[in-house]
Structures are given as C-alpha cells and as structure tokens.
Amino acid sequence: MKIVKKILVALLIILIAMQFYRPEKNLAEDGHTAAFLAETNPPQEVRALIKAACYDCHSNHTNYPWYNNIAPLSYWMAAHVADGKEELNYSEWATYSKKKKDHKLEEIGEMLEKGYMPLKEYKWLHEEARLTDVQRDQVMEWAKRARTLYDIAPEPQ
Ligand code: HEC
C-alpha cells in the first residue's frame, strides 16, 4: 500500500511538472489558405466543411479547445497537428509541385471514402467534423474535379 501511495505521489508530481512545458502553438494569420482556395476553388459548402473538419490538423492554424491547456493533452494534440501538417498542409499548397497537389487531392478522396479522416478521436470531440454522407460526397466531388487542374492522371469516365 505504501508503495502504491509513493507511486501516485510521484505521478502527480510528474503531471504537475508537465504543465510547465507548453508545446508551441500553430497559429497563422487569417488568409493562410487563400492560395489553396483560389487555386482549387471549392464551392462555399465545401470550403466550410474542410475548414471545420480538416484545418485544425492540416493547416498553419489550429482552433484550440480549452483542454489544450492541459498536459499531456497539449502534447498529444501538438503531435497530431505536426503529423497531419507533414502529410498535408493547405496553408502551404503553393509550395507543392503539380504532381504532389494531384496526389494529395487523390488521397483526400481516399481518406474520405474509407472514413479515415477526420481522425475518429477528433470526431468524438468535434461535432462539426462529423460529415454526413452528402457532405462527404461534396468534398470528394470537389477533390476529384480539382485534380483535373493538374492534368496528370485523367481518369476515364
Ligand atoms: C485531429 C487531426 C486531424 C484532422 C482533424 C484531420 N486529419 Fe488528416 N491526418 C492527420 C494525421 C495525424 C495524419 C498522418 C497520419 C495518418 O495518416 O494517420 C493525417 C493524414 C492525412 C492524409 C494523408 C494520408 C496518407 O496516407 O498519406 C490526408 C489526405 C488527410 N489526412 C486528409 C484529411 C482530410 C480531408 C481531413 C478533413 C476531412 C482531415 N485529414 C482531418 C490528422 C488529422
């Protein structure tokens, strides 16, 4: 029993110490996705959907919930944002090659079709990110259409 108490006290101290380290936040100014939007031209509904469901992990700006102030949740979220941005960052669209843009749009379609994105733990906490089938189809349709901009993998109709 004594040892259990000691372990609990040690864990509590670690948890408190963790609060002093805050991962750097992902906070860009407005307009960080302007180049992406101008180029791929999503319809209004799709703009709103990707903003609500994808930007937090795939752009240079995250809307942080209050619990992001609590470690280790803050570490966990920072890791998701870093991993997500590495795979796909709408704020850095202009730096991607044509081939990469085409490929990312293809992957967006695949992720949505399989229901892998947004991540499920994100959907538990973000109601606005739970896309209906119709909304998902709208985003997939836009992604497919936008691929034709890059003229790389024309799919037979
Ligand atoms: C909570 C954070 C989070 C949200 C929200 C999120 N993603 Fe992701 N996404 C990730 C992470 C982390 C990865 C990289 C690791 C992985 O594939 O699981 C990723 C990977 C991807 C990839 C690359 C997959 C691959 O295999 O290369 C695509 C495309 C993608 N996400 C699209 C989306 C779209 C579209 C949305 C919105 C509908 C979205 N994501 C919402 C975190 C997120």
Structure at a glance:
InterPro entries: Haem-bd (IPR025992). This protein is mainly alpha-helical and 157 residues long. The chain has one domain (25-150).
Topology of helices and strands:
Layout (H helix, E strand, L loop, with lengths): L1 H17 L15 H7 L3 H10 L1 H4 L14 H15 L10 H17 L5 H6 L7 H15 L10
Helix pairs in contact: 3-8, 6-8
The chain binds heme C.
Heme C binds next to α3, α4, α5 and α6.
Organism: Cerina litoralis
Protein name: Heme-binding domain-containing protein
Pfam families: Haem_bd
Overview of this protein structure:
- This protein has one domain (25-150).
- It is elongated and about 70 Å long.
- The protein has helices at residues 2-18, 34-40, 44-53, 55-58, 73-87, 98-114, 120-125, 133-147.
- The N and C termini lie far apart (69 Å).
- The chain is mostly helical and 157 residues long.
- The chain has 8 helices and no strands.
- α3 (44-53) packs across α8 (133-147) and α6 runs antiparallel to α8.
- The chain binds heme C.
Approximate strand percentage: under 5%
Poorly predicted ranges? none
Number of strands: 0
Seen as an oligomer or otherwise, the chain set is single chain
Properties at a glance:
elongated; Haem-bd; single chain; mainly alpha; 157 residues; Heme-binding domain-containing protein; binds heme C
